[in-house]
Write a structure and sequence with these properties.
About 60% of the residues lie in helices and about 5% in strands. By secondary structure, the chain is mostly helical.
Length: about 220
């Protein structure tokens, strides 16, 4: 058991603060690069410098840990894992920036720009709350569009007129596993997935036994 009086090594905490700042700087650079590429292509060099700084800081963290330990608060394995995870974020950002030139990308796709924006927002409480609210709204809209109250389950799809394709299939299992199904409907969704026409050990079938490709209305 860790001592209640134990405190983390200040030098180690300082290095983690530097690593976190480097992640934030990298995220801002990547966001700016993707938002105005190729005009801002020169920012890729700045991201490379951040990647080098990240490697150095990760090395310093491990060296500090070897010399002084954690101060009795943190587990050494957790220190190694966190240092590696922070460094990986910068490594992946540098790889993304590098591939823009490597594959002669003319303009990044919007999803890549949004991902960079989210990465940047992780260090800003107000923007993080904004993204959380937008995610909640998308979750609600998806549920309202696909939920079939009489079946206690989700429609397979929406047709070109935005009407439900009311076939029963296993697709909603992915939504259930990822937390997209509201808590009050999770049990009904799980029960339907486990029904005899969808569930047959050792797997869930793609389409219920009683279903066909026709739109059941």
């Amino acid at each position: 058991m860790r001592s209640a009086r134990a405190t983390a090594d200040p030098g180690l905490l300082g290095l983690f603060e530097a690593s976190a700042q480097n992640v934030e700087d990298t995220a801002r650079l990547l966001h700016a690069l993707l938002a105005d590429y190729p005009e801002q292509a020169a920012l890729a060099a700045d991201i490379v410098r951040c990647e080098h700084d990240g490697d150095r800081i990760a090395h310093d963290i491990k060296a500090q840990l070897a010399r002084h330990g954690t101060g009795g608060v943190l587990e050494p394995a957790d220190v190694h894992a966190l240092a590696g995870a922070l460094d990986d974020i910068v490594d992946h950002a540098e790889e993304a920036a590098d591939q823009l030139a490597l594959y002669a990308v003319e303009a990044p796709m919007e999803p890549a720009q949004r991902m960079a924006e989210i990465l940047t927002a992780l260090g800003e409480e107000q923007r993080s709350e904004e993204f959380a609210a937008r995610a909640g709204e998308l979750k609600r809209r998806r549920h309202d569009a696909f939920w079939m109250p009489e079946d206690g389950f989700y429609a397979m799809a929406l047709d070109p007129d935005k009407q439900q394709v009311r076939s029963i299939a296993s697709n909603p299992g992915h939504a259930l596993a990822s937390g997209l199904v509201p808590r009050e409907h999770a049990r009904a969704c799980a029960d339907r997935l486990m029904a005899a026409d969808l569930f047959s050990s050792p797997h869930v079938t793609v389409v219920g036994a009683a279903e066909n490709s026709a739109n059941r209305r």
